[in-house]
Amino acid sequence: MTDSQRRASYQDLLDVPPNHCAEILKGVLHTNPRPARPYRNAASVLAGELYLPFRRGIGGPGKWALLDEPELHLGPDPDIIVPDIAGWRRDKMPRIPMKDAAIFITPDWVCEVLSPATEAIDRADKMDIYAREGVGHLWLLDPRTQTLEVYRNESGRWSRIGAWRGTATVHTEPFEASEIELGVLWED
């Protein structure tokens, strides 16, 4: 951002039409229309696959708070960032804040569902912010290529753990206690 550009404000974010997702990343307002059905479907199904074993503890260890599209305020001059799904270990966030939209606690895990409109920002600005703020794990889910990429934060830098495609069955960090069948994420 140059000196002549002003930093986006929270009011700028609030002024965005309701059919758009808005974020302030590195001082710049980014808006995109709500994702098309294949992208929302993949995120919703993944959240559902994780909910019982990791939030409720049914068939898994529990002890996670999972939220779709939380509004995160991260950093000293906060970036306002909305991952598709985020998760916190319960020892870090024992209760989900219910009063405000904003959450100021860095997640332990985030998942971004890549689309043509968001992939460049997800892979650049958002990955940088998540690494800087100490998010432990990042998943990039791409319905177009039917791919899941998994990253671990190692001292502020992303280390790629692996990538899986198609109908693979995945056991991976931080949810290795359960398996995820990728094929269900791409179904109509």
From TrEMBL:
Coiled coil: none annotated. Residues 11-176 form the Putative restriction endonuclease domain. It holds the Pfam family Uma2. Signal peptide: none annotated. It comes from the Bacteria. This is Putative restriction endonuclease domain-containing protein.
